[in-house]
Design a protein that fits this description.
Layout: H1 13-29, E1 33-36, H2 41-52, E2 56-61, H3 66-71, E3 82-85, H4 89-99, E4 103-107, H5 111-122, E5 126-130, H6 140-144, E6 155-158, H7 161-180
Parallel strand pairs: 1-2, 2-3, 4-5, 5-6
Length: 181
């Protein structure tokens, strides 16, 4: 989950692109499927990296069909290997993104990413935060001081995409084993 804004204020675009590419490679390299918003910006960079690395990217569109996806929302037709058209708008799409994911990774981001984080947090998802990627990702520690969920999810903070993916997979697997006993 990350900013669709192509040029977010205060972000080092070269660093952001490098982190996104590494994150996509790590996702594909661990055999994970990427679920993203079928959008521009960071999600598009990660999606392209996943596909270049031999992985699968599934995009969840806010539009009801390809024409609305591209025409009304201005989103790329080639944002993922498979695009699911929901017709639920951006916030509805965000809920589907989170609920369709076992692990939620936050990289950079703005208001939409914050929305995805809060849905994931409320639903107890395994959440990884790529620190140093700017935006919402670099503010989540502060937010957690105010969010007090007794059985809240494990939020993992790291500044290395590969290590973050590995830690999130371990945490997810640990939770899956604990709930199946």
């Amino acid at each position: 989950m990350g900013s669709a804004d192509e040029t977010p204020a205060g972000h080092d675009s070269a660093k952001r692109e490098a982190l996104a590419r590494r994150l996509g490679g790590a996702i594909a390299g661990r055999g994970c499927v990427l679920v993203t918003g079928a959008t521009t910006g960071v999600p598009n960079l990660v999606s392209r990296s996943v596909r270049e690395s031999g992985g699968l990217a599934v995009g969840i569109s806010p539009g009801a069909n390809a024409q609305e996806h591209v025409g009304a929302y201005g989103l790329p037709a080639d944002a993922a290997d498979v695009i699911v058209y929901t017709g639920f708008g951006k916030k509805g799409r965000n809920v589907i993104n989170v609920r369709s994911s076992d692990i939620v990774i936050v990289i950079g981001g703005g208001l939409g990413t914050l929305n995805e984080f809060t849905v994931a947090y409320d639903e107890g998802k395994t959440i990884g935060v790529l620190e140093g990627s700017g935006g919402v990702a670099d503010r989540i520690r502060e937010l957690l001081e105010y969010l007090n969920k007794a059985a809240g999810p494990r939020v993992i903070f790291m500044d290395d995409p590969e290590t973050l993916i590995d830690a999130c997979i371990r945490e997810f697997e640990r939770g899956r084993v604990a709930t199946s006993l």
